[in-house]
Amino acid sequence: MVQKTAAVIPHVLTQDFLNSCVNGVTLSDPEYRRLSTCLFNKAFEDMTGYAHDESVGRNCRFLQGADRDQPELERSARSYQQQRAHRGHLRNYRKNGELFYNRLRRQTAFDNKGNLVFSLAFSMTSPGRSRLRKR
Ligand SMILES: Cc1cc2nc3c(=O)[nH]c(=O)nc-3n(C[C@H](O)[C@H](O)[C@H](O)COP(=O)(O)O)c2cc1C
């Protein structure tokens, strides 16, 4: 994690607080390797089967495995480039290879100079929409 993280993350975003959330929470810092995640909570570990140390510092795209033919990914990448929030459903895979549908809500946090300081995402498993299902 880069130095500013500890100073800028609001006090409420301690690991204890995040671990009490029932939804998966991930945080990425644009200054800390592009799109890499610097913080995960326990619910995200439970959802994916990956321990914190196995996920931290990686771009969450690893959860897509080889399943990269998803239109939502282009929207996700574009919104990130444009520093906008994003909502969408993605096909993701647990460590044991099991498919799950990740209902993702990503928010952007700016400092008072308008610089993007964090991207914060909330994940929950979803039954999966028919258009998302693999045939
Ligand atoms: C904070 C944050 C959390 C993310 N969480 C996930 C996730 O749980 N699953 C996933 O498939 N992609 C997730 N993404 C999206 C990917 O990092 C990436 O934006 C997406 O794969 C599209 O970009 P790409 O085409 O460069 O891979 C997350 C992105 C950010 C910034």
Draw up the topology in text.
Blueprint lengths: L3 H5 L6 H5 L4 E5 L8 E4 L1 H7 L3 H4 L15 H11 L4 E8 L5 E12 L5 E11 L9
Antiparallel strand pairs: 1-2, 1-5, 3-4, 4-5
Going by helix content, strand content and strand pairing, the class is alpha+beta
The average pLDDT value, as a whole number, equals: 84
Strand order of the largest sheet: 2-1-5-4-3
Number of domains: 1
Number of helical runs? 5
What is the CATH topology descriptor? Beta-Lactamase
Q: Major sheet, described briefly?
A: 5 strands, antiparallel
Give the CATH H-level superfamily: PAS domain
Listing every helix as H and every strand as E from the N terminus to the C terminus, the arrangement reads HHEEHHHEEE
CATH uppermost class: Alpha Beta
Measured by DSSP, the beta-strand proportion falls in: 25-35%
Describe this structure in words.
The chain has a single domain, classed as Beta-Lactamase (2-Layer Sandwich). β3 and β4 form a beta hairpin. Strands 2-1-5-4-3 form a 5-stranded antiparallel sheet. With 135 residues, the chain is an alpha+beta fold. The longest helix has 11 residues. Bound molecules: flavin mononucleotide. Flavin mononucleotide binds next to β1, α5, β3, β4 and β5. The site of flavin mononucleotide has 21 residues, from β1, α5, β3, β4 and β5.
